[in-house]
């Protein structure tokens, strides 16, 4: 039997009748929901996988990108509350920029009547910095962004040198990096759910020691899982990562 896709403006996934939990996935800067297109095939039937599609990319290319974290997190939270009508318990997973977005959405979802948030899972990024720890930065230039991308994703960065593709994908990358440069929550909100932090042992953006910083945003404990690899360790270790996440949800 073919199970139909679930597709809304903000959310993409595969329906899982009888699921007991839903995993909502948040992509990295410049990324889209397609980053998680096959995760549903790697999870047990008790888990439904939904991916967030940020505006300004892929099939939402004509829409303006979010300019602030507040704008993005508010819109995603609204989508989760209105486009997913049931009360299936939610866990949030974010990679890189997606970790910060997932954290902000988790803050907004806590305490919403009829919605149960069970866990925040973050990857490839330290916890958010407040202004006195790290003041907001100017938005990086395109050359600075591309230099950073080549460090983080040496295997995939060539796409930005393609003369036909670069004008299509650079605007969302530029917007996301600018959003992150300005993002500094006024204070850290301690979530009342456990947090799991994952990362690569050779990630130039997030040292293994930085993963423990997420203990500052939970009252319910942090566990850490380190994989072999760089910032995009989750590509070669996809099956293992998804299995590890699933073990926390069912």
UniProtKB/TrEMBL annotation:
Pfam families: Thioesterase (PF00975). GO terms for biological process: lipid biosynthetic process. InterPro entries: AB_hydrolase_fold, TEII, Thioesterase. Residues 22-245 form the Thioesterase domain. It comes from the Bacteria. Belongs to the thioesterase family. This is Thioesterase. It comes from Streptomyces viridochromogenes.
């Amino acid at each position: 039997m073919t199970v139909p896709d679930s597709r809304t403006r903000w959310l993409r996934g595969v329906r899982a009748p009888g699921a007991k939990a839903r995993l909502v996935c948040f992509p990295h800067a410049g990324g889209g929901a397609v980053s998680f297109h096959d995760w549903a095939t790697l999870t047990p039937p008790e888990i439904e996988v939904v991916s967030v599609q940020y505006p300004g990319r892929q099939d939402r290319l004509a829409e303006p990108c979010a300019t602030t974290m507040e704008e993005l997190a508010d819109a995603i939270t609204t989508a989760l509350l209105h486009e997913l009508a049931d009360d299936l318990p939610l866990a949030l997973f974010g990679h890189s920029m997606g970790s910060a977005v997932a954290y902000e959405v988790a803050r907004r979802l806590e305490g919403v009547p009829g919605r149960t948030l069970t866990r925040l899972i973050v990857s490839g990024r330290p916890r958010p910095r407040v202004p006195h720890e790290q003041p907001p930065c100017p938005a990086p230039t395109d050359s600075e962004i591309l230099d950073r991308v080549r460090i983080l994703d040496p295997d995939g960065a060539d796409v930005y040198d393609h003369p036909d593709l670069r004008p299509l994908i650079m605007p969302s990358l530029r917007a996301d990096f600018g959003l992150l440069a300005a993002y500094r929550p006024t204070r850290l909100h301690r979530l009342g759910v456990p947090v799991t932090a994952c990362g690569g042992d050779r990630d130039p953006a997030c040292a293994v020691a930085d993963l423990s910083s997420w203990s500052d945003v939970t009252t319910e404990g942090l566990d850490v899982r380190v994989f072999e690899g760089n910032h995009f360790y989750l590509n070669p270790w996809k099956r293992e990562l998804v299995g590890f996440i699933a073990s926390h949800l069912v």
